[in-house]
Amino acid sequence: MKNILKILVSKEDYWAIWLGAFFLTIGLIFFFDYGYVQQKRASLQSELSQAEKSAPFRTVDYYETREKLKGLKGGNNAVADFLKKLPVKPNKWEGNPLNSLMQKQEMPAALAELTESAAASRTTAIELTENARKASFADERLNEQAQQSIANWMSEQESLAAAKKKFNGDYNYIPALLMLGLLLAAIFGIGAFFMGVKFRTFAAGFGGIYIIALISYIIGEHSTMVYWGFGYAAWAIVIGLLISNTIGTPSWLLKAAMPEFYIKTGLVLLGSEILFSKILAIGLPGIFVAWVVTPIVLITTFWFGQKILKIQSKTLNITISADMSVCGVSAAIAVAAACRAKKEELTLAIGLSMIFTAVMMILLPALIKLLGLPEILGGAWIGGTIDSTGAVVAAGAFLGEKALNVAATIKMIQNILIGLVALGVAMYWSMKVDKEKGSKVGLAEIWLRFPKFILGFLGASILFSVIHSSIGNELGNALLDQGMARGFIKNLREWLFCLAFVSIGLSTNFRILKGYFKDGKALTLYICGQSFNLMLTLLMAWIMFYLVFPHITNSL
Predict the structure, then answer these.
(1) Which of 55, 156, 251, 484 is deepest in the core (most CB within 10 A)?
(2) In this structure, what DSSP letter does residue 548 have?
(3) Is 180 strand, coil or helix?
(4) How far apart are CA 183 and CA 178, in angstroms?
């Protein structure tokens, strides 16, 4: 019993599960205000029904109530408000980098005019609707005037909403960022202490890593970097690599450079965002694209690397293959743990993934538009081939709302394979690769190799899928998706990923990496594998969405 307890509190994978569970529990406690949201939703639905019955056309009251219903979300308490502000990310900026963290800005004259104009249009629309109501909506001329004024108001509201997105107003993120750094240092410091790192030593190193992560975020939010898709992840690794390969990473900083600890915890959090209801919503076409193409590409790419390119390191081969075929960094981390790949091999796989993700995020939507492909087909193609979930969403948005939804859902379906692929690799390495080396083989070895944090990832996915389905789609979206996930968990997860990427860069040496690039085989493997992935995914998406299940496509 003591040995089991010791393992549960001294191993990185288990601490990723414990910390992931801690953050998710906090999220549920303060964002899952079911009673309030259910009552508010019922009240708004009643108001919406009354507004719809109050006139033969949709009034200002109807549209405003509908927007309130759409915007309903969990987390209507002081603690939830604090948690929403805690994992804040720097704003998009130009000119002065400090503007990403703090700014005092007056409302532009154009926005003020648009606000006044929209308010005036609203007043006019209400007045004209009242005129039509006084005539018992029997005067067609008055009805048309009211409807036209409502249409004008809605058009101005859309313009106002678009203008407000570009205006951040007054903000100061520095206090929240300081608080976030201190809390993460304390929470992860406890885990590091049980894994053998002194708390004070970890905290000092974590402070340095957190500052580098913040700088990476700031650079990644520059308007030019946002346009070209070079976000925080790429900059976190680049800055870390520059430090480690120029002045050298100080030993005190390395003590907190624990990339797998951060990213595994983030992946447990990611599990809460992968819901079975979203998978079922897109149906069999998306499942075929994600679950049939992915293993074919993975196995084919690994075979190609071994038999054609003759890559010496099987662990490098499988890590790159999983990174490229499944879902980028997340899959690479899981598979590298399962086959015990070298740290440098994992870094190389992640580096290749980020470079190609940035390129594909820009080029693939442009190619889809150039070829004139249908929006849903384009979204499926993006979701099945671009590695990063964030890049998938950004690329899908270039094509439209339908493409974005299809792309994001297929990527989520694909993410579920992380656990299965890691298990498969652990079994293959134990029963085939290690057997060839004369190592021991058996269930115990498979369990030893299997990344335990995957259990947290799958557990979170199952738990939150059950909660979501039990309370219904609308309440589930309000409480879990719009409330807990977007309000707290998603931003926190991205911060953990950023810390992991900084740590990868700080603990990687170019001299060791250079050996893997010498013969160009790693790059060739990635290019050939991704090319095959692109062709097969497009073919499967076209067959499933337009030949086999066209009725599902028409319903999306």
Answers:
(1) 484
(2) I
(3) helix
(4) 9
Mean pLDDT of 503-521: 76
Question: Which residues lie across from 102 on neighbouring strands?
Answer: 172
Q: For tokens 């290019």, name the residue.
A: 527
CA-to-CA distance for 426 and 430, rounded, in angstroms?
A: 6
The percent of residues in the chain predicted with pLDDT above 90, rounded, is 42
Q: How far, in Å, CA of 421 to CA of 154, rounded? A: 49
In one letter, which amino acid is 383?
G
DSSP E strand boundaries for 152-207: 171-172
CA distance 73 to 27: 13
Q: Locate 231 and state its tokens.
A: 């976000």
Strand positions, DSSP E, 380-502? none
Of 492, 500, 466, the closest CA to residue 480 belongs to 466
Residues constituting the chain:
556
Please give the backbone phi and psi of residue 506, each rounded to the nearest 5 degrees, phi first. -65, -25
> From CA 87, how far away is CA 491, in angstroms rounded?
6
**What's the pLDDT at 8?**
75
pLDDT score at 412: 79
Q: Is the pLDDT of residue 174 over 90?
A: yes
CA distance 325 to 329: 11
Beta-sheet pairing, 171-172 with 102-103: antiparallel
**Paired residues of 222 in beta bridges:** 93
Q: Identify the residue with better confidence: 548 or 436.
A: 548
What the block records as the tokens of 319 is 């890590």
pLDDT value of position 346? 85
Q: How far apart are CA 524 and CA 509, in angstroms?
A: 22
Residue found under tokens 């590695």:
387
What is the helix (H) or strand (E) element at residue 409, kind and residue range? helix 401-415
End-to-end alpha-carbon separation of the chain, Å? 53
Q: Give the span between the Cα atoms of 143 and 120, in whole angstroms.
A: 19
Give residue 323's identity as a one-letter amino acid code.
D
What confidence tens digit (pLDDT) does each residue in 359-389 have? 888 789 889 989 999 999 999 999 899 877 7
DSSP string, 257-326: --HHHHHHHHHHHHHTT--HHHHHHHHHHHHHHHHTHHHHHHHHHHHIIIIIS--S-HHHHHHHHHIIII
CA distance 330 to 349: 11
Give helix 389-399 / helix 375-385 axis angle, nearest 10°: 160
